[in-house]
Specification:
alpha/beta, Rossmann fold, about 45% helix, Asteroid domain-containing protein, Asteroid, PIN-like_dom_sf
Length: about 775
């Protein structure tokens, strides 16, 4: 992620870095503040944890690791602020689809096309790793339940949009570093921002413990220490600290955008342009549609470091030439991009198709704009100017428009506060901003229909309808008043573009000495935005459509899903509401959820809250698969047996440690598919409870789920011990929907030609055969 080759370039030029060391024995008076990119933290921690992924995730163990790392950071003197991504911008859809295809779809396909013995190999599992789908929920649960001694120095923020610009802006406000795994953090910049810390360049050390002298009668030589210096044992790179937190030390390296810009001899405001030209998430071929822009700029054999050097030299030559007398000056950043693209092309423009150069320029502009930070309307450095946003005033906060379609401010406030507390998954905000849904994709049999469609979609449709009833989902763009938008867009004269932008963007004396050269790009973008009152022309009777991104065969495909009317859904479960469902009492909202998932029974309602989610998920799986089997006999094998259902419940009741046994259970295709069904249902139920704002009444079962425990019980390595009240609440009225227990096939022993069905001492001769036939 980030700028192609920039991480390697920074490591090869160590003079660009600054070394730091923190020690528990020498705590600083003022804590060093770091802002941690939440998803980089999750990916790096699970990768370095050694926890198995293939069974579906070890979420309880992962939560304990999160707490261990955060506690160690606090102990060495850090003040930690986590930032998690908000809704995904539409510009990044090609990037996300490309990554999902590479890491999830392709890896799953390779897994199931590999023999059972080979795919159990640790090296194969390492190379085909897929991040377990519920790690985000487990991480947030841990961060929200830290003890007070740690929690006073840990803060969690949820970005309004993409997390990288938000993290850097937050770091600038509080004078912090940003720790992550994305070289974009050395391109982004804000006043007060101290620099970028790669997570993989954090090194833990612990003081070496003195060996105890044995108490015996033998002679022991006495050695006088030559110094008081204590030896250190380095535990290596990675987030996980040593087991013993005493005498802990942390070394890390930081990189500053200012230092990088000075080294490249570029204005710091042009680092984003350099990153776009070299290749980032939006401009390189692996994550964007269209031609490979970088192949038009660089020879194939050119290294990433050489590409960076070539781009910076080209930009510098254009800027230097424009300052000479008699030379044409660069008229704004758009002119600079045009000139730089033209100079970098290794092909003659005459050999390129009509409009091809303009498309390349547009790609570079889009890739540069992702680094733009929101301008603050006040000079205050304090956080939370209002309860709406930690950084922005309501006038510029990008999260408000997506929650304000229905102008129901009481409901908007409830959802907004839930999001800021971590009780509303950012995936839900994708529905509000872009009308898209991105169900988590994990290991599942590629030849079968994806479980996200079969089991998850009916639950998600309830969420779509409730959310549209409360806040309103975006409607198809084709229904917008195109004439109004077109008139407003044409009202901005091309010659006045940069004049408009310069007025908007210049707001301090400091910026006048270092002008923001990206300002014209943002201004041009603002001139094309839909006017605020355009939505008022949209009629309320239109049916919104949510685009779901699901696996279809061996690719990620878009599937439009019409949002059902909430009145029709409520009528189907014998419920009614005088207003939006989100405005009803908590008891009514819980009833809606239980009835929608067909689990509104006294036995289910009386279960402890920590068991309620498991019961609801299991019952939904059993009934849904039974109904699918009744529609087609080919799907009868999908149904769960009673024993498999008990194994699922046992995987939640036991807070098991995956290290409790050295015997890893066998990886069977059916068990993998059962796990995929369970994980999909857990995610869908969690999001529905969050949309109903009752996640405290139906807490997620993800933080206690152990995929290895599930597989161990499915394969018979451990018994599925479940309490009677829980099993009765889940299964006593669903015996009709459960499949018969599957008989295990008895494998033939080597060298034995007899089948198990053949009698042990068969009679010989014709009469013996007739006797066996009559028996």
């Amino acid at each position: 992620m980030g700028v192609l080759g920039l991480s390697t370039y920074l490591r090869e030029n160590r003079r660009l870095s600054e070394a730091h060391r923190l020690d528990t024995r020498e705590l600083l008076a003022d804590r060093i503040k770091i802002v941690v990119d939440g998803w980089s933290f999750i990916y790096d921690l699970y990768r370095s944890s050694g926890l198995p992924w293939v069974y579906g995730g070890e979420y309880a163990a992962f939560g304990r690791l999160v707490r261990t790392v955060v506690e160690a950071w606090v102990r060495v003197g850090l003040e930690v602020s986590f930032v998690f991504d908000g809704p995904c911008p539409e510009l990044k859809f090609p990037t996300v689809v490309s990554r999902l295809t590479q890491t999830n779809v392709t890896n799953a396909l390779v897994f199931f096309r590999t023999s059972s013995s080979s795919r159990a190999n640790s090296r194969f599992l390492h190379e085909s790793r897929i991040i377990p789908p519920l790690v985000y929920t487990a991480c947030i649960e841990c961060l929200n339940t830290l003890p007070s001694s740690i929690n006073d120095h840990v803060f969690v923020h949820y970005a309004d949009e993409e997390g990288d610009p938000y993290a850097v802006e937050l770091a600038g406000r509080i004078g912090a570093f940003v720790a992550g795994s994305d070289s974009d953090f050395v391109i982004l910049n804000a006043p007060g921002y101290r620099g970028y810390i790669p997570l993989d360049e954090m090194i833990w050390s612990a003081a070496e413990a003195e060996e105890a002298v044995a108490q015996d009668d033998d002679f022991q030589p006495v050695r006088k220490p030559k110094s008081h210096k204590r030896a250190f044992v380095t535990s290596g790179r990675g987030l996980v600290p040593p087991a013993d937190l005493k005498g802990l030390s942390l070394a890390f390296t930081s990189y500053s955008p200012t230092t990088l810009a000075a080294h490249l001899n570029l204005p710091i405001t042009l680092l984003p342009l350099m990153g776009a030209l070299v290749g980032n998430d939006l401009s390189n071929s692996s994550s964007s549609s269209g031609k490979n822009v970088q192949l038009l700029f660089f020879e194939r054999g050119m290294s990433h470091a050489q590409r960076i050097t070539r781009v910076t030299a080209t930009i510098n030559s254009i800027l230097s030439a424009s300052s000479l007398k008699g030379k044409q000056e660069v008229e704004g950043v758009m002119d600079l991009i045009d000139k730089t693209v033209t100079a970098l092309l290794i092909r003659s423009i005459s050999t390129m198709g009509s409009g091809e150069v303009e498309k390349v320029v547009d790609r570079i502009v889009e890739a540069t704009l992702q680094y733009a930070l929101h301008k603050s309307l006040d000079d205050s450095k304090a956080l939370w100017p209002t309860s709406i946003c930690a950084l922005h005033l309501p006038e510029v906060c990008p999260i408000l428009p997506m929650m304000s379609r229905m102008e129901r401010y009481d409901i908007r406030e409830a959802y907004l506060q839930a999001y800021r507390r971590g009780c509303l998954n950012p995936k839900i905000l994708d529905l509000l901003q872009t009308g898209t849904s991105w169900p988590r994709l994990f290991l599942e049999v590629p030849d079968l229909e994806t479980v996200s469609r079969a089991l998850g979609r009916p639950i998600r449709q309830w969420g779509y309808a409730i959310l549209h009833d409360a806040l309103g989902l975006p409607c198809p763009e084709a229904d917008l008043d195109e004439q109004t938008i077109g008139t407003d867009a044409e009202a901005v004269d091309e010659d006045d573009e940069e004049e408009l932008v310069d007025v908007v963007e210049s707001d301090s004396d400091e910026e006048s000495t270092s002008p923001d050269l990206l300002a014209p790009l943002r201004g041009a973008l603002q001139s094309l935005q839909v006017p605020e009152d355009a939505e008022s022309h949209i009629s309320d009777d239109r049916i919104p459509v949510v685009t779901e991104f699901l696996r279809r065969g061996t690719r990620i495909a878009e599937e439009p899903v019409a949002v059902p009317m909430i009145s029709d859904l409520l009528a189907s479960i014998s419920c009614s509401a005088p207003g939006p469902v989100a405005c009803q009492s908590e008891a009514q909202r819980l009833t809606v959820l239980l009835r929608a998932l067909r689990s509104d029974s006294d036995a289910v309602r009386t279960l402890p809250r920590r068991q309620l989610g498991a019961a609801v998920c299991l019952r939904w799986i059993i009934m849904t698969l039974h109904e699918r089997a009744s529609e087609s006999k080919d799907r009868d094998k999908e149904r769960w047996t009673r024993r498999e259902a008990l194994c699922f419940l046992a995987a939640h009741e036991l807070d098991s440690d995956p290290s409790e046994s050295d015997n890893s259970p066998e990886l069977l295709d059916r068990n993998i598919q059962l796990t995929a069904q369970a994980l999909t249902c857990i995610e869908a139920v969690d999001q529905l409870s969050q949309i109903l704002l009752i996640s405290h009444l139906l807490p997620s079962i993800a933080p206690t789920f152990s995929g290895m425990a599930f597989h161990r019980r499915l394969t018979g390595v451990a018994p599925p011990t479940v309490s009677q009240p829980l099993s009765d609440a889940c299964l006593v009225d669903l015996s009709y929907a459960l499949a018969d227990e599957r008989k295990k096939k008895i494998r033939k022993t080597k060298g034995s030609g007899r089948s198990a069905s053949v009698p042990a001492n068969p009679a010989t001769g014709l009469f013996g055969l007739l006797a066996n036939a009559d028996a």
